[in-house]
Amino acid sequence: MERYNQLAQAFAYTPIHVYGVYKSKLEANRLYRGHVDQPTAYGGIILGLRGSARFTFNGSNSIEVNQGKAIIGGYQMRLALEVGETGCEYALIHFLADGRTPQAALFQKAHQLEYLFEPSILQMVDELIQIDAEPGEIAALQKKALFYQLLAHVLRLARLQQKPKNSEVMEETIRYIHAHYHEPITLGQLAARYDMTPKYFSAAFRKCTGVGPIDYVIHCRMKRAHQLLMTGAFTVSAVARSVGYQDPYYFSRLFKKQFGVAPSYVLLEMKK
């Protein structure tokens, strides 16, 4: 799985608490050793904004940060920082992950990420800094929402930067699935659209998205089914048919596997 997909999966399934948001300017040709003896207390997202600096974790993992390069993770790691000849400006967002989830272990390493830098990154960082200074629970919720928005934007830009082979084909496939999820879709049918073998197509799709093509189809169908059930206006059988399943019992098993409750339960709750 590509690095951006690994990180997206970890953040999607791990509860995160967002702490401080900072923008730092460091003088050229300086060495900072503030965390050499004392490991970091938080995980972090470091986004290079201007200039460059080299972050060395645990004495061996050396990562250069400049505009378009980021570091994600670094929790409980020793850190030294060597600034380049032009100085360095970077944004830092501290976070802690719930260590009870298996994906949280990913944040105990420092991961380098290259992405297509856009000016919108600067704007989003400034918005985060501004909301971080505001008191209250609503501001804390806004900060977390902006954190995820910025993170998702950076990960999407990282995917564009890497442009894996067949990425355009996979993006077209995703559009096709969203338009035709309610119709019969098979792996063989999707692969045949591009004269690929099912095995090769499935591997390429998974590399681009992090999931297999049929799992992606099921996810789209279940998401739409949940939306329809939330209206309270349709029976389970009608919802099943509308997302491509003639057998409501099979649909119910897939729905419960994804959401943890039966579709009939969602419908009943909406009618109370």
Automatic annotation (TrEMBL):
Instruction: Kindly state which keywords UniProt assigns to this record, in alphabetical order.
Output: DNA-binding, Transcription, Transcription regulation
Q: Which InterPro entries match?
A: Homeodomain-like_sf, HTH-like, HTH_AraC, HTH_AraC-typ_CS, Tscrpt_reg_AraC-type_HTH
Per UniProt, residues of the HTH araC/xylS-type domain are: 171-269
PANTHER family according to UniProt: ARAC-FAMILY TRANSCRIPTIONAL REGULATOR, HTH-TYPE TRANSCRIPTIONAL ACTIVATOR RHAS
Q: Which GO terms describe its molecular function?
A: DNA-binding transcription factor activity; sequence-specific DNA binding
User: What species was this sequence derived from?
Assistant: Shouchella clausii
Signal peptide span: none
Q: Any idea what this protein is called?
A: HTH araC/xylS-type domain-containing protein
Regions crossing the membrane: none
